[in-house]
Amino acid sequence: MIDTVNSWICEIALLTSGFIYIRTIEKREKFRRAALLDAAIFLILAGILIYIVKTEISFGNLFMRMLEFLVIVHFMCVARKLSVKAGIYYAIWAFMSWQILYEIWFMIEVSREYFFKENFIVSVWIECMVFLAGYLIAAFTIAKWMPEKGRKKIGPRQLSAACLTFCVFECIAFAQQNRALTENVERWSILHVSQVLLAVVLYLQNELFKKSEMRQELDMLNFLWKKEQEQYLLSKENIALINQKCHDLKHQIRAIRQLKQEDMEQYLKEMEESIQIYEAIVKTGNEVLDTILTEKSLYCRRHGVTISCVADGTLLDFIQTVDLYAILGNAVDNAVEAVEKFQEKEKRQIDILIYKEKKFLVINVVNPIKENLVYEEEGTFPITTKKDKHYHGFGLRSIEHMAKKYGGCVNIHEEDGCFSLTILIPLPEEREPHRSHF
């Protein structure tokens, strides 16, 4: 009787450990039914494991544990916004934490039975306290530190290292189930310390991979920042040169018209209209924004793309020149790249809104998309469609990086064939709105 109760407590503790590591991850909508189904399946497997495979290491025991592992992975993925790889990684942590606590309880139980008489209530109480204390410590330390802002991204190298560590850990765990080993306290202690060290190694791996990823992204963002700085200076010079040439050509055309050559009138009219395209300077109240929009509008006119903009450029004065160019340059470039895939003229349209909402600066760029984008995980940025993925796909991350620099955030949304990028940045002070349309 006591062995059965203890076994059920252990199995319920194993299922609970799966929740400990995902409690800080963003929830999925309407996940309860699927989660309850997974919990029911897990308990059925646990019952089979308890009543059929009671003692000795066996293939049946190993097989049932593997099934329980898969159920916990599925439970994590349906309950939280996790990829399968992240679910496997957290399930590894759940199993390892449970196994370490189980071994601690088992050793306490063996020592207690050696010195005192067997007591059912005391045995159950000790088991519950060991798991409760262990899970509370894990919940407010490792489980809280591992996710980064409610998300967890796992690469193939990190997952492979975690799986290898887990396999070694489980080999030690199954070895400890051999009674000949558990009778020797010293050998048991060595094996248990080995398990704890493997858990420490797994955590250090997590921190190293996290820092490596942050370093790579920072290097790429710095690279993009320098490129944006160079591009801004070049674009400003080009637009100044174009404006000067347009001004000179207008005077030349007027001089030719004074000659009254009627056969050249139509030709000159067409030439003047074409020149007007390159003199279409945008006036929003912010020099940097004017430069960006003028440059982008020139490109879009040449390629049959229409940009509609309602902007209060004075709201952008507190953002540094290069940062603003990185934010808007990347946002418009991504939108242009998306609409150029359309043949229909009415779909080659980009809408830009820059306005104040309460105490926030809002930058909203909306454009049609030809097909739904693919995301690494829910709530993350879409995967780049370009072939050279190592040097592309950093546009949105660069925008997010710059927005966070000013205490802001980035939100992306897809609906009815349109992609919407919204950037929210707190305004440092109140400003009177002054909107420019073009």
TrEMBL record:
Protein keywords: Kinase, Membrane, Transferase, Transmembrane, Transmembrane helix
Residues spanning the membrane: 6-22, 34-53, 59-79, 86-108, 120-146
DNA-binding among keywords: no
Molecular function per GO: identical protein binding; kinase activity
A Pfam family annotated for this UniProt entry: HATPase_c_5
UniProt domain Sensor histidine kinase NatK-like C-terminal: residue ranges: 320-426
Protein name in the entry: Sensor histidine kinase
Organism taxonomic ancestry: Bacteria, Bacillati, Bacillota, Clostridia, Lachnospirales
